[in-house]
Amino acid sequence: MTTATSPSTSATATAWPHRHLIDVDVVTWPEIELIMRTAEEMKGILARPIRKVPALNGRRVTTLFYEASTRTRVSFETAARNLSADVVSISTATSSVTKGESLVDTVRTLEALGAEILVMRHGVSGAPYLAAEVFGGHVLNGGDGWHAHPTQALLDLYTMREHLPGGSLRGRKVAIVGDILHSRVARSNIWTLTAAGADLWLCGPATLLRGMDRWAAAWSGGAIPGHGRFNVTSDIEAALRDADVVMGLRIQRERMQGGLLPSLREYAARFQLNAERISLARPEAIVMHPGPMNEGVEISPDVAVSGRSVITDQVANGVAVRMALLYLLAGAHEAAPGEVVR
Amino acid sequence: MTDRQIMTGDEIRRAIVRISHEIVEKQAGTQGLVLIGIQRRGVPLAKRIADAIEEHEGVRVPVGALDITFYRDDLSLIAQQPVVKGTDLPFDMNGATVVLVDDVLYTGRTIRCAMDAMIDFGRPRAIRLAVLIDRGHRELPIRADHVGKNVPTSREEIVRVHVAEIDGDDEVTIGRLVPAPEADAAADR
Asked: What is the Cα–Cα distance from A234 to A248, expressed in whole angstroms?
């Protein structure tokens, strides 16, 4: 049980050791099982007449979002309220950040105002590590630049396990299609899905896969214990054929520098998840998307709302998974001074 | 560390049969009666009480399981979050007479949590409490309606209930609290 290579047999962790959650790269498979099990309980709470428990009564959760978001922010805030935490919500567009306050000063100010758990989203990869260095409480990453989106990867894993017979990803083919290059969702999913033993395929235009083949090659020799090889391809048919899970990613126009794509129309013509392409996957395959969707670009509207689509399940499960993470992080008191943040 | 046995398997069985009779007598039947075991060892005990009731009344009383973790009043004080063990209440709580079942009644805080948790599911007509062991030292105004055995203890002692479903054998022991109690007993407090 030293590695995550056998998820079906490895045990659930009995304690959560991480003070912060900035990416899933430091989370072991037994700890992922603990998150999944705790999320299952949280989902039970969401089915009750009163969707609220007092587990984090009086604890203070602050959301600090430097990038636009609806579902992630609302999901975190709903999760925190369902646990009876007090929620403070800061949108940088209306804060002193517009007056030039630095991230470090903002974090110190929020701590002085009583924040205990800081949920943050930032456009710069690695920004949460900086915040964690100066913040006395817990940092929970809600997405940083191209780097990581751990809660999304965990809710994706939860949703896949919920829909796959046997509840295991082992040997299941998962195709992630779209703008891999700019995607923190894809990067975090690479960690969790390879740990889960999935047959992972990343697919998109070559310009939007840059660097991924090097990553895949580095892991193919078993360089990282518990994480296996994955495939990188621009052949959409090879990626989708017999897939159990198909995940579309948003074409991130705001991060797109010139020249990566000839046009959105050409992207749609070659890579859009439409009914014809989805028919290459297994008949019972599920279709996922982390949102927000550009319907008609990376996914066709009929596929997004088809019977295979579990996109709204992802949103609902996101609340349960974030409740689980808030609960687990709030109990990690063991952080010694000078502890390595990761 | 010398643990002393204070109940044998047979004594546990007899206590459960007696409690099952007391519950039915107090309710004047089984109408509207449900049993809820508190995770973990209250759950098998509740099932055994339901088995005993079925044996002498011929009626299967619904049994649920309640996890009180999210309702604990010490979550911000303990070092690590306890692992959640699952709540399953497959019946309507509204109007029911609920008998809460737990292994050991001590400070009463677990029962306070359990009552808070149950009320989030509905409004029972009445809540009663059945425990295998009452060891005293209450910190809240809570008492048990049905008790298997009253055991005077000191706070330096620990009462361990073993049930075959979880521990492989049936017995109750009492011993001195050791500085580092086994993790499982600590998690169950």
From this structure: 14
